[in-house]
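Hi all, long-time lurker, first post. I run a small reading group and we've been trying to get comfortable going from sequence to structure in the token notation. Rather than ask abstract questions, I figured I'd post a concrete chain and ask someone more experienced to write out its structure so we can walk through it together at our next meeting. Sequence below, copied exactly:
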Amino acid sequence: MTVAVTREVAPRVRGFLASVMCEVAPGVYVGPRLNPLVRARIVNVLGEWQMALGGAVTLLWQDGSKPGGLAVRCFGEPVRELCELDGIFLSHTPLDGDELVKLGLRKRSLKTEGKPEDHPFLPSRARPEAPELESPGAVEDQEPPRT
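-- Answer (accepted) --
Happy to help. Here is the structure in token form:
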């Protein structure tokens, strides 16, 4: 069984997937008996179109050689990041700068103090370099322009 889940993709991608798989819900495609050659062709086409068309597609299929018996291929930026832990796939949403501050894993400052990837409590590839955050009082302390 092969499953494809799409998010904000171009109609061209949806049409291509619908031509080889059955759309069982909006953006969810299922191919109960796709052979490896057809699946490889789908992967090649999605890989070629990913940069030009935007959106995201997550493709899943049964593979006994992979952890948990499931192979996963993501095109674009998935809403959730998949990672492997002790042979099981786990899904998580990477934290943004404000969430890191709330958890006390990052200080709110004018200068970025290290990359989020360098933090000991975050996975090594948790997020790309986060934008710098301003301190909450930085804007309030400025004097209004004089007229």
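A couple of things your group might point at:
Residues 94-136 form one domain.
The longest strand covers residues 56-62.
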